[in-house]
Amino acid sequence: MNSDIEKILVSQEKIKETNVRLGKELTKDYADKNPLFVCILRGAAMFMMDLVKNVDIPIEYDFMDVSSYGGENTSTTGEVRILKDLDTPLSGRDVVIVEDIIDTGYTLDRLIELFKTRNAKSISIVSFLDKPARRIKHVHVDYVGVQIPDAFVVGYGMDFDEHYRNLPYVGVLKPEVYTTK
């Protein structure tokens, strides 16, 4: 897998530093609350598990599987589909959406609207990566881990065709890997 990576954008050490920093920020901002962290599967699972280890307050978490990509696509379709919904009611809750990467903003725009209709008390977003060059829908990201350039990235939970999620860093996938499929 490593031979398919053009370059490493976010090292293991930077991942750890980022999770510590974000965990401290969330601990401070949610000190007197009982937030519900909502992990957007599958990409954000690794990030969420590392992140919550650095949050030093009581929290709850749940998982939601949402997709605007399909199979071997490297760009969004724009259509957001809920594949697995939450088990936890949102009414009256302070919700922290945990996302692996903010790209076009379609997914988060849809989720924010959905969570508002479910009467969430507050909604904030923490994203490990932010790729502002591809933003179509403007969404406010409250906590940003690392801002990256417009490149197709994999690793640390992010995939191409369900591969590369287990890389311990975030790397740029060589174009010949995804353009020959």
TrEMBL record:
Alphabetic keyword roster:
Cytoplasm, Glycosyltransferase, Magnesium, Metal-binding, Nucleotide-binding, Purine salvage, Transferase
Kindly list the cofactors needed. Mg(2+)
Q: In which pathway does it act?
A: Purine metabolism; GMP biosynthesis via salvage pathway; GMP from guanine: step 1/1; Purine metabolism; IMP biosynthesis via salvage pathway; IMP from hypoxanthine: step 1/1
Catalyzed chemical reaction(s): GMP + diphosphate = guanine + 5-phospho-alpha-D-ribose 1-diphosphate; IMP + diphosphate = hypoxanthine + 5-phospho-alpha-D-ribose 1-diphosphate
Mention any Pfam family matching this sequence: Pribosyltran
Its EC number is 2.4.2.8
Boundaries of each Phosphoribosyltransferase domain copy? 14-160
Keyword Cell wall biogenesis/degradation (UniProt): no
Molecular functions per Gene Ontology: glycosyltransferase activity
Q: Which NCBIfam families match?
A: HGPRTase
Family assignment from sequence similarity: Belongs to the purine/pyrimidine phosphoribosyltransferase family.
Protein's job? Purine salvage pathway enzyme that catalyzes the transfer of the ribosyl-5-phosphate group from 5-phospho-alpha-D-ribose 1-diphosphate (PRPP) to the N9 position of the 6-oxopurines hypoxanthine and guanine to form the corresponding ribonucleotides IMP (inosine 5'-monophosphate) and GMP (guanosine 5'-monophosphate), with the release of PPi.
**Entry protein name:** Hypoxanthine phosphoribosyltransferase
Record organism:
Companilactobacillus baiquanensis
